[in-house]
Amino acid sequence: MKKIIILAAVLTFSFTALHAQAVKFGFKAGLNYANQTGSDITVNSKNYKTDAITTYHVGLLVELKLTDGFAIQPELLYSTEGATYKNAIEDFKNELGYLSIPVMAKISLNKAISLDLGPQASFLVSEKNKFDAKNAETFDFGLAGGLSLNITENFFLQGRYVLGLTDASKEAQVKNSVLQVSAGFKF
């Protein structure tokens, strides 16, 4: 995992050196509305339904403007995801903390709004639940899409949906899905 983080940092700084005049650094934070969906959600031979949980994300970003209407925005986020599992007898919260690396292509629709699309790789770093920790997958890959609204030259708002494409558990076919609303600052 450390090698991947170092590789992402080296690539980000390489792009920065090439396009120093069109680079903005920033940070963002916001709320997640996360759930785990899939077929056959079974834990310890019991079937469960899931409900979404409200959590948070926080992190850093680099916006690399390549043309007037196109930019690449790699990010490094700490994001909590998961769900509340319920059946007739019990319920419990499954909260997973990920180090997420989305790489968004930003297509400007006008001076204030951009369409953001791209892949996201996430690495499990913490887990708060009643599951056996050995049952969680440590890598999650997904696709992200959303909109960014530049309020000022430096302050922005974002809405994004991340659809997990890989299973979050070794024992059940469940995938993470999260709706993110963020506020951030670029300088």
From TrEMBL:
Domain named Outer membrane protein beta-barrel: residues: 20-168
Stored SUPFAM superfamilies: OMPA-like
InterPro entries xref list: Beta-barrel_OMP_2, OMP/PagP_B-barrel
Alphabetical keyword list: Signal
Taxonomic superkingdom: Bacteria
Signal peptide range in chain numbering: 1-22
Protein name: PorT family protein
Annotated organism of origin: Flavobacterium pygoscelis
